[in-house]
Amino acid sequence: MSELLLPTIQARHQDRSNVHLTLRLRRLRRLRSVAVPLVVLAMLAGACSNSGSVEVEQTTTEAATAQDSTTTEVPEEESTTTAAPSASGPVAPLTGLPVSDTAELERPALVVKIDNHPNARPQTGLDEADIVFEMRAEGVTRFAAAFHSTSPAPLGPVRSSRTSDFDILRGLDRPLYASSGGNDYVLAGLRNLPIQGVTASSRTEYFRDSSRPAPHNLYVNAADLFALSDSDEPPTAWFQYRSANEELPVSATAISDAVTIAYKGNSPVVTHTWDSARAGWLRTQDGRPHTTSSGDQLAPENVVIMETIYTVSPADATSPEVQTVGSGRLFVLTDGHIILGTWSREAADAEPVLLDEDGDVIKLTPGRTWVLLPDGGATTVPAS
């Protein structure tokens, strides 16, 4: 795939400005009292910047063992477009799925930091997250799982915050944020964010599973944390979704082989392979199916791979910090197809814009989405 320059895309497709304007006006109507000028971003190397940082758990690192205190092939000639559910009524903003009980929408998002150390697997609740963000930590990846339309019980294992979380949290409209804690730098940074902090260091809702080794055994029930919210404002939608019977764009290519994401360092090699029976993208880590505690393999309806860069966290020299403001190569896996393009995110309080190689906005299949954030060049697509 050729490298794409956002100014070139904009010159050929002026309607990109309208996409950014729509996102900004929607946010201004709901949450902002100060207008932020619209900025068109250039290449990743020149535009990726971040004011946050990453962190290490107060008393443990990823390698620590000390206790904490207290593929089905889809023939191309067959139609593989899944009809999106009808959205005549309200829809969940982070999945695009219809919601029968509007009361479910009257709460903020809940973002929970979930462990992905080998000793933390299998996790509980990841399959019920509306959006899961995967990013590098120290020798592993770690998840920031956003819940809004569901309230899993239990959730975990819960682990510590990183400064990589900061700009993701800023884009979710004052969410509840749950983690096991963080070092002093990270905790100070969290206090300055527009979030509702409900970390384990300040709450009694968390509990330990004695059958698992610490620190990979901290859990919480989503409903207990939702009950702590002082807001009824739902998050803004991060993505656009196809409506019922809306076709995939011509830029979409059917794919039956695995897409591979090789995170740097000792982090896992991840693959996603379309399974038409599940209507989802089966996930593996280091050659093994990534399953939940129930034994089911994770298979989200959408996988959005946003290649980016990592810098050194100001919280700890051993911690990488992902840059989610900027632009870069994009691979969208949806409905048995892959769509290549670019992502851009103008500011930490904005949602990303996903454009295909024709400069058109990419719409996802209504459902759950995993956002993978590997370094540039980490994604391998099988030859067509």
List the helices and strands and how they pair.
Elements: H1 6-12, H2 15-30, H3 44-47, E1 110-114, E2 131-136, E3 141-147, H4 165-170, E4 176-178, H5 184-191, E5 196-197, E6 207-208, E7 218-219, H6 222-226, E8 253-254, E9 259-262, E10 269-275, E11 280-285, E12 288-289, E13 302-306, E14 310-312, E15 320-322, E16 326-334, E17 337-345, E18 353-356, E19 369-372, E20 379-380
Report the count of strand segments: 20
Low-pLDDT ranges: 1-87
The N- to C-terminal Cα distance equals 12 Å
Instruction: Provide the number of structural domains.
Output: 2
Overall shape: globular
Summed up:
This protein has helices at 6-12, 15-30, 44-47, 165-170, 184-191, 222-226; strands spanning 110-114, 131-136, 141-147, 176-178, 196-197, 207-208, 218-219, 253-254, 259-262, 269-275, 280-285, 288-289, 302-306, 310-312, 320-322, 326-334, 337-345, 353-356, 369-372, 379-380. By secondary structure, the chain is of the alpha+beta class.
Plain-language structure description:
By secondary structure, the chain is α+β, with helices and mostly antiparallel strands. The protein folds into 2 domains: 6-52 and 240-375, no CATH class; 102-226, YerB-like fold, CATH 3.50.90.10. The chain has 6 helices and 20 strands. The strands form 4 sheets. Strands 1, 2, 3, 4, 5, 8, 13, 16, 17, 18 and 19 form an 11-stranded mixed β-sheet that branches. It has a 5-stranded antiparallel β-sheet with strand order 12-11-10-9-20, with no helix packed on it. It has a two-stranded antiparallel sheet with strand order 6-7. β2 (131-136) and β3 form a beta hairpin.
